[in-house]
Structures are given as structure tokens and as C-alpha cells.
């Protein structure tokens, strides 16, 4: 698996998707555009990742809860839910180089 900056794969017309990554790779900040951050510093568009799931912060909440956008499963599709992953030791904070909250 190529996770360098040159490890791009083309999928469909004009969609340039970097990867592939597993949730565990993302959790560990693997790959050129990913790096770990302190969960306390995570902000909108950063992510929380466990060894089997990834969600992006849609809106920062309070009391260790955030609005997270993630694919919850085939039956539900992509959803926004309130999660307490910031305080869950199974999840790490991850950011991507060049991504910034609007």
C-alpha cells in the first residue's frame, strides 16, 4: 500500500482520492496527509478515529461531546450524531494537512 503523497488513486471522473487507508492507519496518523493531534485541540473538520471507525467533527460541542458526521452503517448511511469520542480512550485525534474549518 502506498501512503506517500504520490499514492493517489483515480476513482470515477475527476475524483482524486488519496489512500487507501484503514481506520486503524488513520487513527495512528499514517500516510502523508495525516497527523495525530491532542483530542482537546480537535476542531471542526478534524477527526476522531478508533481501530475500526472514523468520524469527522461537524460541530464542536461541550462536555466532551461533539456533533460527528460519519457513516453509521448500510441501513443508516451517513449521519450526524452526538458522540463523546473526545473522552473515549479508544479514539485518537487526527487532522489532515491543508484542511481547515471554514
Major beta sheet summary: 6 strands, antiparallel
Whole-number tally of structural domains? 1
C-alpha-based Rg, rounded: 14 Å
**Shape by Cα distribution:** globular
Distance between the termini: 32 Å
Counting H and I runs of at least 4 residues, what is the number of helices?
1
Widest beta sheet: strand line-up: 3-8-4-5-6-7
Poorly predicted regions: none
Structural class: mainly beta
Instruction: Determine the fraction of residues in helical runs and give it as a percent range.
Output: under 10%
Fold blueprint:
Layout: E1 8-10, E2 16-18, H1 23-27, E3 34-37, E4 47-49, E5 54-60, E6 66-73, E7 77-83, E8 92-96
3D structure, described in words:
The chain is mostly beta strands. The protein has one domain. The protein is built from 1 helix and 8 strands, in the order ββαββββββ. The strands form 2 sheets. It has a 6-stranded antiparallel beta sheet. A two-stranded antiparallel sheet has the order 1-2. A hairpin with a 5-residue loop joins strand 5 (54-60) and strand 6. The model has no long low-confidence stretch (mean pLDDT 82).
Descriptive labels:
102 residues; 39% strand; single chain; two-stranded antiparallel ribbon; six-stranded antiparallel beta sheet; mainly beta; 1 helix
Short description:
The protein is mainly beta. The protein has 1 helix and 8 strands. 5% of the residues lie in helices and 39% in strands.
Amino acid at each position: 500500500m502506498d501512503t506517500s503523497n504520490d499514492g493517489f488513486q483515480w476513482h470515477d471522473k475527476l475524483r482524486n482520492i488519496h489512500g487507501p487507508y484503514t481506520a486503524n492507519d488513520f487513527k495512528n496518523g499514517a500516510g502523508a496527509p495525516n497527523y495525530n493531534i491532542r483530542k482537546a485541540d480537535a476542531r471542526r473538520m478534524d477527526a476522531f478515529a478508533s481501530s475500526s471507525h472514523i468520524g469527522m467533527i461537524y460541530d464542536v460541542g461541550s462536555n466532551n461531546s461533539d456533533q460527528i458526521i460519519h457513516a453509521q452503517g448500510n441501513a443508516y448511511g451517513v449521519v450526524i450524531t452526538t458522540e463523546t469520542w473526545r473522552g473515549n480512550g479508544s479514539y485518537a485525534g487526527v487532522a489532515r494537512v491543508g484542511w481547515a474549518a471554514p
